[in-house]
Amino acid sequence: MFGRKKAEMVAETAALPGRDFDIPTADTHFVNGAALKGPYPQGMEQVQFGLGCFWGAERKFWELDGVHVTAVGYAGGYTPNATYEEVCSGQTGHTEVVLVVYDPNKVSFDALLKTFWESHDPTQGMRQGNDVGTQYRSSIYTYTDEQLAAAKASKAMYETELGARGYDAVTTEIRSAPEFYFAEDYHQQYLAKNPNGYCGLGGTGVTCPIGTGVAAE
Question: Does residue 88 have an active-site annotation?
Answer without folding.
Answer: no
